[in-house]
Sequence to fold (99 residues):
Amino acid sequence: MADIKYYDVILKPVVTEKSMELMGEKKYTFLVHTQATKNQVKEAVEKMFAGAKVESVHTMNLSGKTKRRGMTYGKTAKTKKAIVKLTADSADIEIFEGL
Fold:
């Protein structure tokens, strides 16, 4: 397992219609490092966002899409997505405020 620091775990938030609807249930979606575990994601969210208390983390591995340019084939990079559910008494995550 790679030695990943908490500030390297979360790459960027995912902003889609579905992820915006989940915010009402205190569920936030992030793209995370492909080698990150659920415990590392939980630690990163609690350290990076003040007042956030994580209840659960669901992760999913997304394989790269096959792309074609002319007769040449290639694949895009693999990614990992995490849906983080906060506790009821937890503070909201500020990145998503005003979206």
Notes: The longest strand covers residues 54-62. The CA atoms of residues 52 and 92 lie 7 Å apart. Strands lie at 10-13, 27-32, 54-62, 66-69, 72-75, 79-86.
